[in-house]
Amino acid sequence: MNEAAARASDEPVLVRPSRESDVEAMLAIYRHHVRNGVPRDEGTGAPEPDDLRERRKNLKQTRLPHLVATWRGEVVGYAYAVLFRKRPAYRYTAKHSIYVHHAHLGRGVGRLLLQELIDACAAAGFRQMIGYIDADNAPSLALHGRFGFARAGLLSGVAYRHGRWSDTVMVQRSLGAGTTTPPPVTAPGR
């Protein structure tokens, strides 16, 4: 490897809030996962640009994180958290999703995004974080385990894609004080 190539591979992956200009890159990452991977909850169709723009706008209004990871100025992954459920009783629990560009798997992009999501949700006052992971996605399950997520359940045969039934693993981890103390008077992310 020449010196310039070595320096380029040493460039850090940076995580920042997503921008409107990131939408097409995020959609390209998601579309690849729809065609070739194991998308979680949106079936076989990818969201349209306006859907993603609306999601970003809604999350910005609730102060929930919507992040991108960049390497050498290119978006190589994205992640976001949403309310686990809309009912008031669930307002202290966030559900998250992470997508990494297929050419950057195994480079620590998911690790950086997950750490930022955890930190942002904890800072916003959330007490629990939930994720749904395809049971065949061993790297994601291992990553979440390293970050203290425990398997909270198995949803058998809940998705049919790519010609077969797929199981989904629900993972969960406490944030901040978790369930050791009552929540504050005001809801997080508001």
Structural class: alpha+beta
**DSSP helix fraction:** 25-40%
* CATH level-four homologous superfamily name: Gcn5-related N-acetyltransferase (GNAT)
The CATH architecture would be: 3-Layer(aba) Sandwich
- H and E string: HEHHEEEHEHEE
Alpha-carbon distance between the two ends: 50 Å
CATH first level: which class? Alpha Beta
Shape: globular
Fill in the CATH topology.
Answer: Aminopeptidase
What fraction of the residues are assigned to beta strands by DSSP? 25-35%
Please give the number of β-strands. 7
Give the SSE layout:
Layout: H1 3-10, E1 14-17, H2 23-36, H3 49-62, E2 66-71, E3 74-83, E4 93-100, H4 109-123, E5 128-134, H5 138-146, E6 150-161, E7 164-174
Parallel strand pairs: 4-5
Antiparallel strand pairs: 1-2, 2-3, 3-4, 5-7, 6-7
Would you kindly provide a written description of the structure presented here, covering whatever features stand out?
β6 and β7 form a beta hairpin. The termini are far apart. This protein is of the alpha+beta class and 190 residues long. The radius of gyration is 17 Å and the shape is globular. It has one domain: Aminopeptidase (3-Layer(aba) Sandwich). The chain has 5 helices and 7 strands.
Tags for this model:
Aminopeptidase, globular, seven-stranded mixed β-sheet, alpha+beta, 190 residues, single chain
Task: Summarize this entry quickly.
With 190 residues, this protein is α+β, with helices and mostly antiparallel strands. 32% of the residues lie in helices and 31% in strands. It is built from 5 helices and 7 strands; from the N terminus they run αβααβββαβαββ.
